[in-house]
Amino acid sequence: MRTTLTLEDDLARRLRELARSTDRNFKDVVNDAIRKGLSVGDAAPAGREPFVVHPQACGFRTGVDPTKLNQLYDDLEMEDLRAESGYGVHEK
Asked: For the chain, how many helices (H) and strands (E)?
């Protein structure tokens, strides 16, 4: 299939360098990179132990009320808006 693809400059540069250093054409390098990217989440490569997450109970520090986190966020956001607009800010 033929299609047009717009690559960011840093990716295009890395792909060209890889094609040059492996003596392969650009199209093959791009196709391999996309295949590898799409295979993320497939079965782990042979010989590699799977990564296991060991969950641990965590909580908020003493004095932090999780029911008021949205209120804190709103207060901080309003403070930023006031600072940006100059509202309520008095110059000395």
From this structure: 3, 0
